[in-house]
Amino acid sequence: MKTVSQIKEPIAHEMELFEKKFSLFMSSRVALLNKITHFIVNRKGKQMRPMFVFLVAKMVSDGEVNDRTYRGASVIELIHTATLVHDDIVDDSNQRRGFFSINALWKNKIAVLVGDFLLSKGLLLSIDNNDFDLLKIISVAVREMSEGELLQIEKARRLDITEDIYYEIIRQKTATLIAACCSLGAAAVKPDSAHVESMRKFGELIGMAFQIKDDLFDYGEQKIGKPTGIDIKEQKMTLPLIYTLNQVSKKDKDWIINSVKNHNKDKQRVNQIIDFVKSSGGLEYAQTKMKAFQKEASEILQQYPESKYKASLQLMIDYVIDREK
User: Fold this and answer.
1) pTM of the shown model
2) What SS3 class is residue 221?
3) Nearest-angstrom CA–CA distance, 185 and 209
4) Residue 96 DSSP class
């Protein structure tokens, strides 16, 4: 958490004010909703997404933020929280960040409605303030996240994911939201400027590296909140596995695909697949690709003048691939 505190330092005041505004934006006249949203606010994560919004906004505008920046950060967090609530229902997950999930405490029906409420709150926050450019950025992200999830489900049924399709899935599923945070940070203070696209690309590259790092955790020993091999059990084709399938003999490839398709709940079989991936160089290959995305993101950042906000964003890039959970 020390690195996260360092990253947050130049925007500590903005983050403090953001938390107050965010709680207000989530409020409702329905007591049950307020109880649930209070539960969500008190169990927030690292808040990386609003941090991206504020750091990018301040970097491209010599340290300035405005009301649009706070609204943009709030909309991103509302939409992101809505997707997490819905994801837990889709995945039938009873936990989120070590706490019970909304669906575990209040059942699926209420969780779906809470997710819908948060989504509509986010959209209305933009519409009521005529932030239509920000709304477009966020709406594109929501569309792409949904498409990415469905593309992954479609491909998991056939296990025919190529490396290019894998990149498209993670670009849509994960990278598109971080890209939206960064482009939104730029658009809030410098609308219609070249910074908006430049920062969108920057965020997308960080998101790609972030997801590959997540995929690598599936093969590691770190306690990260999900058991090792969970992606294989869920028939998710990640980069280490895709690379391995392209390296091994046809016999071994058939064995791996059959194992993922038909024996993915067999712990011993899953561990054999993990060993196969490790011995085939799948982890090293994924790490190389992850570092390439990180390097590309850093190169975009280097085009900006030195500032404490730029330094924090560089720390953020490094943190994405150095983190242990």
Assistant:
1) 0.88
2) coil
3) 20
4) E
The two structure tokens encoding residue 282 = 């799948």
Predicted pLDDT of residue 113: 79
**Residue-level pLDDT at 86:** 61
Higher pLDDT, 220 or 303: 303
Pairwise CA distance, residues 53 & 71, whole Å:
10
Least confident of 92-101, 142-151, 184-193, 212-221: 92-101
CA angle 204, 122, 55 (to 5 degrees): 45
The CB density around residue 51, as the number of other CB atoms within 10 Å, is 24
Residue 172 confidence (pLDDT) above 60: yes
Please count the CA atoms within 13 angstroms of the CA of 169 that sit on its side-chain side.
22
Query: Is pLDDT of 304 > 90?
Result: yes
* Exposed e or buried b per residue across 91-127, where buried means at least 16 C-beta atoms within 10 angstroms of its C-beta: eeeeebeeeebbbbebeeebbebbbebbbebbbebbe
DSSP 66-82: -HHHHHHHHHHHHHHHH
Residue 225 DSSP symbol: S
Q: Taking the alpha carbons of 132, 197, 51, 320 in that order, is the dihedral positive or negative?
A: positive
**pLDDT confidence of 13, banded at 50, 70, 90?**
very high
- The answer to whether the beta carbons of residues 286 and 183 sit under 8 Å apart is no
Beta strands in the chain (DSSP E): 95-96, 99-100
Position with higher pLDDT, 99 vs 200: 200
The CA distance from 227 to 221, in Å, is: 9
- Cβ contacts of residue 240 below 8 Å, gap of 6+? 215, 216, 218, 219, 277, 282, 283, 285, 286
Contact 291, 199 (CB under 8 A): no
* Helix/strand/coil for 100: strand
194 contact partners, CB below 8 Å, separation of at least 6: none
Kindly state the percentage of the chain with pLDDT values over 90.
46
DSSP assignment of 24-51 equals HHT--S-HHHHHHHHHHHTT----HHHH
